[in-house]
Amino acid sequence: MERKIPIHDHDGYIVPLLWTFAFSHNEYWCPCCGENYPMFHDEEEIEETPILKERREQYRKQTKNYLAAVGMIKGKARKKWGGQMKSFAEYSKSTQRKWKRWIKEWQPGVTL
Fold first, then answer.
1. Residue 30 half-sphere exposure, CB side, CA atoms within 13 Å?
2. 10-residue averages of pLDDT along the chain (112 residues)
3. How many structural domains is the chain composed of?
4. 35 is in which domain, residue-wise?
5. Does 46 fall in a domain?
6. Pairing state between β 84-86 and 13-16
7. Which of 2, 58, 61, 92 has the most Cβ atoms closer than 10 angstroms to its Cβ?
């Protein structure tokens, strides 16, 4: 059975969308341009290929810190730390600065 995956086509460069809860009401995110989409979106879906699967995994690794920071700061997520659920404001100032830096350093337009 073929697996269809959502993509964003950047003038022929196909980017698999990543599933994330970092953005409120938008579960899919394009790691190339930064656009995000709701779960039931109108973006194209195509059959997953080994190349697209590898590309998705590379983007997932490359953007892991960025998405975690966005979820904590903008998405108002809570993260378990030391057995307790903590919000962004409950973390140390150095951790808050690190997460803000991760967001600031991320640049859209990255192709692999």
1. 21
2. 86 93 89 90 86 94 91 75 79 92 86 70
3. 1
4. 4-105
5. yes
6. unpaired
7. 58
